[in-house]
Structure formats: structure tokens, C-alpha cells
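Researcher: Please predict.
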Amino acid sequence: MTAADAAVVPAGLQAAVDVLTELWPGIPVEQAADGARALAAAGLLVPVEPAAVAVQLPWHVPPLSMNDRHHWAEHGRLVREVRDTARWVIRAARLGSHRYVEVCLHWRPCRDGRRDADNPSATAKVVFDAAVDEGLVPGDEPRHMRKLMPEIHPADKALGPAMWLTVRVLA
């Protein structure tokens, strides 16, 4: 599915569009989306938002930041370490193999304060690559993976700092 196709498919109806395109190979995505809308309007199809699975990551702060300025060898070592760790965690979660998923990195820091929402993106990219390495999806291009901007949650003294990845299977 291309990014343009994703814009055509109504939220919650992706599974119906997938079934229609499998039943009628070659049907344009727009036509399959119209069919899914018609089925839902007739009450024959109830759109359901798939549940997300949360995979707890072992870091309390993003190990990689967009502001990092390491020597290239040190940066490569850090990326390799983060990617290997993320692979083990994703493997342990036994998420299976899918055609299209939505992923988002979440971070709850130890205290509130101003934070640049872009900074965890460096960690998110490496974690998403690890998900591909583990066979969650065939690749990390838009037709296989919808990547959401990392989400920074408010600090919570009772829960403490945490980082996790949410994976929502869309097809």
C-alpha cells in the first residue's frame, strides 16, 4: 500500500479493503475503499480499530538523540548496541510477521520539563530498523510501516521513567 493509498482508505476499514483486494485481484484501492464504506454504511461491516501491543524497552532515556555529536566509530557502536538490544526485546515479544503495521516510540521521562519532540527520533529510527530485522514487516518503507512521531508523556513519580514501543497491526 502506498502513502496515497493509505489516505484513501477510511480509518478502521483497512482489513475490509485488504479482503476486497484479495477477492478481486487488480481492483483499484479507491474502488475497494468505496466498497468497504458501502458495506459499513449498510451495517454489514463494523469498523474496528485494532489494538496496539506495547513492548517495554530497557531504557529510561533515549540512548540516541538528534543532538548527539559522537565520533563516527562511537556513534556506530551505540547504534549497533541499541539495535541489537531492541531486536532481542522485539523477538521476546513474539509479535509475528505482518504486511503493514503502525509503530510509535513512547517515552515517559523522570521529571517534567521542556523537551524537543524530535530528539527521540534517532532512537525511534534504530528501533524501527530492529523491528524489520526481526521480520515484523518486510521493510520500513511506507507501504509496510506507518511510523508515528515519538510521543513524550508527562512524568509520573508513581510509575517512574520508561520507554516503550507500540505496534498496531493494520494488515
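Model: Residues 105 and 165 are 5 Å apart (CA to CA).
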